[in-house]
Amino acid sequence: MTMASTRSTTNILDDVLVPRESELSSRLMRGLRSTLYARAVPIRRVELTDGETLHQPGTVDGRVYLIESGAICLENYSPNGRRTILDVLPKNDYFGEDSLPGMPSQYTPSAITPTRLIVIENAVLHSLLCNGSIFDAWQYSQVLKARRHRSLLLQHATSDSEARLAMRLLDLTQTFGTGIGRAVRIDLKLRHEDYAAMIGTTRSRVGIFLQRFTDRKMIRKGPCGAIVADPRRVVEYIMERMGLRPTG
């Protein structure tokens, strides 16, 4: 018996699918904001238009940014100009903590939709984390981020690009979705080239994959070109591609 065969379907899906923030992480965002306001700390906001970037890779910023509204795409460009989307962050998430030790950023934060950010300077964040409850929530949110990054790495190492697209669509339904009966509308308009940059393939292949998903009734087009997904069918497809069966 192999190690993999002793693990449940849920265990394996938990490793491959991408975990998102928990209620504790949401409380962290609320706690940081309320503490900032209560302590009368000067709060600076940055507003980005659709497609506008915050800074370029290699920047030593030393700030953390809370996403107050909108969505941020973390992008990287190879020396030959190939674009990779490392992650897509929703409202109440944050980024920039990796540059706090004075290290240069490895990505370009770019707004996918009009976005408003709250800027927290390094010294202010350090002061806030002296609060035990905020520190505990911050620490847990960092664990979730590390797990998410590992899951994304596993996707690229163990799944082909078509399966990766299904996984990312499922992730987007959880992060940017609005329920419509058993289906979920993804309330974030992404182009085929955006999906291609997420999963490491071409725009044309994304179009082929999306058509296959449509034929299998995993997704359909909603108003204004939005994707409406059936999460149950998407999960069944992912399990099929992994050679798994439902556990009942």
The gross shape turns out to be globular
Relative strand content: 15-25%
How many domains comprise the coordinates?
2
Total number of helices:
8
Assembly state of the chains shown: single chain
Largest sheet: 5 strands, antiparallel
How far apart are the termini? 22 Å
Based on secondary structure, the structural category is alpha+beta
SSE order: HHEEEEEHHHEEHHEEH
What is the mean pLDDT?
84
Q: From the 3D coordinates, which CATH architecture of the largest domain would you assign?
A: Sandwich
CATH homology superfamily of the largest domain: Jelly Rolls
| Number of E-state strands | 9
Which radius of gyration do the C-alpha atoms yield? 19 Å
And the CATH topology of the largest domain? Jelly Rolls
Q: Class of the largest domain, according to the CATH hierarchy?
A: Mainly Beta
Residues in helix, %: 40-55%
